[in-house]
Amino acid sequence: MNILTVLSKASADSIEQFFQLAKDLGVDSMSFTRLVPTGNAERQTSNDTQTLLGNDLKRAFQRILIASSEYSIPTNTNAPLWTIFDQALGGIPFNFADGIVIDYQGNLMATSRSRYKIGSVKSNSLRNLFLKNSLLNDIRSGNIHGCKSCTKFNKCGGDRNIAWAMTGDFLEKDPGCWIDLEVKKIEKRRHIV
Ligand code: SF4
Question: How far is the CA of 170 from the centre of ligand 1 (A)?
Answer without folding.
Answer: 14
